[in-house]
Amino acid sequence: EQLVESGGGLVQAGGSLRLSCVASGVTFSAYSMAWFRQAPGKELEFVAAIHSSGNTAYVDSVKGRFTISRDNAKHTFYLEMNKLQPEDTAVYYCNWGNRLTVASMPKGSWGQGTQVTVSS
User: With a cut of 70, which residues of the chain have pLDDT below it?
Assistant: First the structure.
């Protein structure tokens, strides 16, 4: 099983980025997919999840700004990030798991992540 994140970069406050995560070795369509982030000196934080049903969940700080989506045929899911703020600066990671526990106990191996830096 492998997860590969991409799409990070440096952007000014108010800008947008789209992150992608390609999953291999996973029964993709059967599981929830999620994004996490870790800012410097802080703990890993759940950001968003999309379940096999298509239902989504977000941490309060990104609601209305971030959108998670998935393409089962491509084994890929995405995080569209708009109105980025300096506090969104972090390394973003993707993972997968069961619907009720993906946010707290994801099943996959952690990849290298993708750096998102938002300048003020």
Answer: none
Sheet holding 32-38, edge to edge: 9-12, 114-119, 90-97, 32-38, 45-50, 56-58
Determine the Cα–Cα distance for residues 100 and 120; give it in Å rounded to an integer. 36
What pLDDT shows up at residue 42? 97
Residue-level pLDDT at 11: 98
CB contact set of 4 (below 8 Å; sequence gap of 6+): 21, 22, 111
For residue 34, the model assigns a pLDDT of: 98
| Residue recorded with tokens 């700080």 | 61
User: Considering only CA atoms, which of 3, 1, 9, 16 is closest in space to residue 111?
Assistant: 3
Could you tell me which of 23, 47, 33, 39 has the C-alpha nearest to residue 91?
A: 39
